[in-house]
Amino acid sequence: MVNDLTPTDRADAEAVEASLELAAERGGDLAPAVYARLFERQPEMQALFWRDGNGAIKGEMLAKVFEAILDFIGPRTYAHHLIETEVVTHEGYDVPRNVFSTFFGIVAEVVRETCGADWTPAMDAAWDRTLADLHHYVTQRGRVVPAPAPEPAGA
Predict the structure, then answer these.
(1) Ranges of the chain whose pLDDT falls below 50
(2) Cys-Cys link to 90, which of 70, 81, 95, 141 (CB 3.0-4.6 A)?
């Protein structure tokens, strides 16, 4: 599958990266806030984390989301494949694409709140464009098309 989205503008990439760095400095582990917001908006998702008693699974998943975002706004060496794969994997856990897509928006909201007064209009605009690209990727890409059935022998 070809990555046909326009690469992220350098200024946008820098603004998103700066917001993530600032949020990490100010908020430390954002997983509790991100997943609290997810479960508030999509309560049915909480049951899927029944094995995550200490938050390690949520923390690992959020770390992968941050890595994917950083690659997606940068070189895009693997993020598009990772996102496509994770969408399909999560569908196997009964996570609809729209919930998967809204997760990126929840991350952006928590980052914005954690940055507080240092959140800039450039960060806001960059995240809006990045979220639109990610939404496209999640909802329009990565659809699994079944291979045609093999023809019977001797046909």
Answers:
(1) 1-3, 142-149
(2) 95
Q: Tokens representing 40? A: 């508030």
What's the rounded Cα separation, in Å, for the pair 107 and 123?
Answer: 14
pLDDT of residue 12: 95
Indicate the pTM of the whole model.
0.84
Q: What is the pLDDT of residues 112-150, one digit of tens each?
A: 999 999 999 999 999 999 999 888 878 775 443 333 445
Show the tokens assigned to 96: 């609809």
Rounded CA separation 90/73 (Å): 22
What residue ranges do the domains of the chain occupy?
10-140
**Dihedral, CA of residue 3, residue 63, residue 105 and residue 123, to nearest 10:** -80
**The token pair that represents 59 in the structure block:** 């923390």
The CATH code of domain 10-140 reads: 1.10.490.10
The amino acid sitting at 38 is L
Nearest-Å Rg of the Cα atoms of the chain is 17
